[in-house]
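Internal ticket - ligand job 392, pyridoxal-5'-phosphate:
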Amino acid sequence: MAERDFDFATPVHAADSVRWSRFAGRDVIPLTLADMDFAAPPAVIDALRRRAESGAFGYGQPTASLVEAVLEHCRRAYGWAIDPHWLVWLPGLVPALHVACRAVGAAGDGVLTATPVYPPFLSAPIAAGRKLITLPLVRDEYGQSWTWDFCALTALAKSARLLLLCHPHNPVGRVWNEAELWQIAHLAEKYDWVVVSDEIHGDLTHLGRHKPFATLAPELAQRTITLMAPSKTYNIAGLACAYAIIPHEGLRNAFRAVAKGIVPDVNVMGLTACEAALREGEPWRCALIEVLRAQAAQVEQAIAAMPGLSVSRVEAGFLAWIDCRDLPVPDPAAFFEAAGVGLSAGAAFGPADAYRRFVRLNFGTPRGLLAEALARMEKACRQLFAASVSNE
Ligand SMILES: Cc1ncc(COP(=O)(O)O)c(C=O)c1O
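stdout (structure tokens):
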């Protein structure tokens, strides 16, 4: 099935949408927080409808059938044979990041992550009493793509106990390739790191299938906590269902012990949606990827034509990290908001001084709305440069 078999043209959001509520009553197109404006797959909606009509909402747990759906998904999508005992169910990846930081090492141990990065990667180590160590990603010589500075990573390696890896990476949109993953893996082995690999965007790679970090080698799987969820892929983040895959028994027990009694169980609607998405959502997912690939190109072309802005290639997901350092405004997010487009301010994604002149744009919205947002941004940039020329 293809894009034309599903509706990706009608924007969908509810009154309780965090993203839309923020700008309620104002003419601002909200391209901020990472959920999409597309209705969830019909198969997921049908499963939720059946569940709702059953009237049964008591305490629930993952069924054998749901676990089998996850195993099958890992086998089919990544060629990864996982043992059902390795699974730990969670209401989200953010709690998992916090739990992992508390479960590994001891107070004051170093937790390393590469910036810019999804903000909880920065707050979880600190909340756990660990030492946050940040490493800036670097732009390649053509400015097309972000990558790791492996010399700098090696220099920091000894001081870390845990690496928080974002793969694919939010916000720079990279799918780390096998050569990059292996360089990280060698350091993990040499310096005895535990690796938390957040792979929430893994089923949204624009070309080819995702390679989980843990599948590089069995010995790496033993030091890795892989975090996955259907939430981004099938646009069901509000249903709060995720899972960790932790092959090492000691690590898994430590993780479970920290979570016990504090992290809630997954709600029954989330479990229902997860199974329907994994078992029946593939045609919708494939159609979505076509949409996202086309819209990534739309964003790249539009941004390339805007004075003062540049963007690198997006390889996965629906987020674009835009460099506004040549735009003569101190706060680009505020500038674009005044022009009618809500974007995530870069300062939250790492050391504020390094990223305050970047913004993140969520293009998971119907093409027409995206085109309108990009047109507003272009007009604002052009007017700004025209005004600065006429003031000279
Ligand atoms: C890399 C990454 N991890 C985790 C999350 C949030 O996960 P959850 O909603 O499961 O807590 C996001 C949401 O944007 C994300 O981009």
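Auto-summary: The mean pLDDT is 96. The first helix runs from residue 18 to 21.
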